[in-house]
Fold this protein.
Amino acid sequence: MAVNLLIAILISLSYSKFSHAGSSSLDDEFAVNQVIVSTTGVEFGKSILPRSVLIAALELSDSENSKLENRFFRIVEATGDEALPLSDFDGRNVLYHFMRARLFFQGLEATNHALSKSMTIRIRMAHAYNPVTHFSSRNSYNNARHIPEAIDGQWGPETWFHLPKPSVNWPRSILNTILFSLTVPGIGLTLLPANVISNSNGGLDAAKIPSVIYHEAFHWASDRGDLFPESQVYHWIPEDYANYFGAAMIDAPLRAESEAYAAPHFRKNFDRLKGRSGQASKMIESGAYNDTSFVPSLFWQIRKILNAQLQIPPNAFTLTSFPIVVRLGDQLIWNSIKYLGNNKHSAREALPSDIEPALLKAMDELPQITTAQRSAILEILTQWR
Ligand SMILES: [Zn+2]
């Protein structure tokens, strides 16, 4: 009897330990990657550090606060369906930044119904997307993407964060070594290590980089008939806006702001104004539509002029160490989206030349913009043409 009682106590102790292993209280803290802005701005490679924030920020649905799921987002492993546990770093990092982005976009447009759409977010994906079968048998790495809901309703809108995959371009490394050896005889294979390093791609670990998560959150927040409805057809205008808002939310003119998680190929800096002429027509003529640097660089200059802080969206957790700031420039650029289509076509299909008239119309809506700021923006637009 005594032995049985002892066993019962041991079982109940271990059970209670087990049942509480995954639970947390709202004022517990957890670490996520944060972008640290110093007085000199954000520097590549020194900008992302793990920092603690409150569990309350995630607004988790389960009473134990143990699963990465709330009324807007469910974070799952690759092709799975189950919400991941709070202990998953990438999962909670993505959820935290999506919640932050949600407040930011709410600050820009409180009635945006795209923000109440619930969504599955897949992390550590290896499969490419297939519009018919959902998960392609082909693999895709070093990427993140927003996918439209299935026409037959099999799946809703989703955001995918793919696995990173470092690689070395061996043919090019070897070819360069041979070419060097031929031009400078005697050096031979000693150049191979240097060539391997210069032809290696460290990949992109998208789920760890706040600006990349915010880029994807923009696609979710603008997936609306009158803005940028998500479709199978790729277009770069939404990419330009997504890159701008990714940068705006980290308050630095960068995309993929991390040396640790992004190879140089993925990193972009939008700080210097780049003119659109030449670049835009070259891209359109060659059919090589991709995201550009010249559109986000224009937006960034406008943001510098309209730097006034509009608001910090009301939410308890934003009042901790990482407040969300919406600036007047962000408002202008968000408002310009609805004028891009200009009745001729949808905003997605707009051309770089449609951006200027859209910005001018959006400027008329914002009485906070002073005459001096208006002239400064017109000057920037002239330089940009
Ligand atoms: Zn994108």
